[in-house]
Design brief:
Chain lengths: 81, 478
């Protein structure tokens, strides 16, 4: 269950290689390994749904360009560039 | 503008179309690899600094060899360790571009050690990102110059020993001693705060590069979970515990504030000045009228090959020199084998009216093979419909191609009969003149005193006979 509020972290399951660096870097411990496997056979990282403070640690620790997106506090889906 | 979302930076290509295979939306890097983290910081910085279209990335050999799959910049993928040299050329030829040299520790500190030293010492306008993961990642975890003391790698199974393997190479310390570099810092990717610090260093180096402030060097302590055989999270801890004590972080040099944009004099290439300096006349002294040259021989790309000592280079030079007198553009490119005498040698000659591109005759229109290994090696490269001249005195096999014109000529034999095997080169020229119609033998003879400047008249006379003998053989036998 993901609440609609921002900030919020979003992991693309298929692009995640399960390295766990985001999970280790999250100060709020709101990222966990999914019990599910993605198409490559990795337990991907997953946002538990609430508690993100938008620090961006997960985004910058993640080596994959497009696996994690963090919507920050001031994010407005109406004003996407 | 303040970010409202942290997403894949625009410095990356949208879909990695240059990457083979189906997975065009993710990198080739191992899970948790530090290269990916640094890639993201660079891609974000070039987007934020608005230099995506002004950046040229030089990618190295090593795991980041494929960096060009990902960055939406200009790209050169270069030979191992040569990124600073190619970066120098790219930066000098494009003084208004931001040039990034991205290199691993094997690439930069081992095979490319001198390249980086010289580029740094010249203060080239290059931003270098140096990924120090203490190992050769791509080749399976061998010792790198930066491997730690005691560190076990596939080539230091008992741990690196300073006595036999030297000490970890500290590139920031070395380069910061030079006068030219502008900014030298060592940063690390081992946790979120240090990644932030790395982010700042990347941005500073690229901002300086954008302002053409010379040589920027950011060493990034990074992880190689696969090479180290440590899981990604523990790899981060390993950097902190093991690498930091041997590679102290910090700014080693920073004169960014005082640095001014490095301007290089615009290179001038004026052929007339070069010719004058070399004492060569830019106007052909003798301007021979051209004969009736068949179409197929008007634009020649020639390979001459044989043993060293068979006059291979002289043949090539003579072809080019004579053609010059008919007003053609020519090039001559020698390629020597490792031995001085008796080894193989070959050269490429181009003769044509237009501008000559590549000097190497990769697919020659004419092959002149003086010995058997040359025939075996180069016959397959002759263009279909091309011409093969081979030395039937020494070559006891038949050519295999049937889509080319073949002239078997006993070149060594003809020269021998004249009393000196060393005149083979001019036998070649005579045969070439007869086959292609490009040269008139009388003209060639007239040129001999110039070609053999300083040689005795007897030698010149003998070579004149050789030209005629080569010419006559073709006319009589084909
Ligand atoms: C001229 C040449 N020599 C050797 C190699 C083999 N080789 C490929 S990658 C590599 C080392 C790469 O290590 P590093 O620069 O540390 O990069 P990493 O893979 O760790 O990112 C070597 C020696 C090569 N490709 N070319
Ligand atoms: S942005 Fe920060 S708090 Fe939010 S999930 Fe990522 S690491 Fe955790
Ligand atoms: S071998 Fe090491 S450096 Fe290369 S991609 Fe894998 S983790 Fe990265």
């Amino acid at each position: 269950m993901t609440d609609a509020k921002y900030p919020r972290s979003e992991v693309d399951p298929d692009k995640c290689k399960g390295c766990g660096l985001c999970i280790a870097a999250c100060p709020k411990k709101v990222l966990v390994f999914s019990p599910k496997l993605n198409s490559k056979g990795y337990h991907y990282a997953e946002y538990v749904g609430s508690g993100c403070v938008g620090c961006g640690n997960c985004f910058y620790n993640c080596p994959e360009p497009d696996a994690i997106t963090v919507y920050l506090r001031n994010y407005d889906p109406e004003k996407v560039v | 503008m303040k970010k409202t979302v942290l997403r894949k930076p625009k410095g990356f290509i949208d879909v990695y179309k240059h990457k083979p295979g189906a997975e065009k939306d993710r990198t080739h890097y191992c899970p948790g690899c530090g290269h990916g983290i640094l890639h993201k910081l660079i891609a974000e910085a070039i987007e934020d600094l608005d230099i995506i279209d002004d950046t040229i990335l030089i990618s190295p050999v090593g795991c980041s060899v494929f960096a060009y799959y990902y960055f939406d910049t200009g790209n050169f993928q270069v030979a191992h360790g040569r990124a600073p040299a190619v970066g120098t050329a790219v930066s000098r030829a494009n003084p208004d571009k931001v040039v990034i040299s991205y290199q691993g520790d094997g690439d930069l500190a081992a095979i490319g050690g001198n390249n980086i030293l010289q580029a740094a010492n010249r203060g080239e306008n290059i931003a270098v990102f140096f990924v120090n993961n203490a190992i050769y990642g791509m080749t399976g975890g061998q010792m790198a110059p930066t491997t730690l003391l005691e560190q076990i790698t596939t080539t230091t199974p008992y741990g690196r020993n300073a006595n036999t393997d030297g000490f970890p190479m500290k590139m920031c310390e070395v380069l910061s001693q030079l006068s030219a570099p502008t900014y030298v810092e060592r940063v690390s990717l081992h946790d979120a705060p240090h990644i932030r610090r790395t982010r700042a260093a990347v941005r500073k180096a690229l901002q300086n590069a954008k302002e053409r402030k010379g040589f920027q060097f950011v060493e990034v302590l990074s992880t190689c979970p696969s090479g180290w055989k440590i899981d990604p999270v523990k790899s981060m801890e390993w950097v902190k515990e093991k690498m930091l004590p041997q590679f102290p972080l910090g700014v080693y040099k920073d004169v960014s504030n005082e640095a001014v944009a490095v301007e290089r004099p615009v290179p001038i290439f004026d052929p007339a000045i070069v010719w004058e300096k070399l004492g060569i006349s830019s106007v052909a002294d003798v301007d021979f009228p051209r004969g009736d040259v068949p179409d197929e021989y008007r634009k020649m790309s020639i390979r001459v090959a044989g043993f060293g000592g068979q006059g291979i280079m002289v043949t090539g030079q003579a072809l080019a020199s004579v053609a010059l007198e008919y007003g053609y553009n020519v090039s001559w490119l020698p390629s020597y084998g490792p031995e001085m005498r008796g080894g193989t040698a070959n050269c490429s000659v181009n003769i044509q009216d237009g501008t000559i591109g590549a000097a190497e005759a990769v697919k020659p229109g004419l092959l002149l093979a003086m010995n058997r290994p040359s025939l075996e090696k180069f016959e397959k490269f002759i263009v279909p419909g091309g011409t093969l001249i081979y030395n039937s005195t020494l070559i006891d096999i038949k050519p295999v191609r049937n889509d080319i014109k073949v002239f078997a000529i006993p070149i060594t034999g003809i020269a021998d009969e004249l009393g000196n095997t060393r005149v083979q080169s001019l036998v070649n020229i005579g045969a070439y003149a007869a086959i292609t119609g490009m040269f008139n033998v009388d003209h060639v003879v007239e040129l001999l005193p110039k070609l053999f400047k300083g040689k005795k008249q007897a030698i010149i006379d003998l070579n004149a006979k050789a030209v005629k003998a080569g010419y006559d053989y073709v006319k009589e036998n084909f």
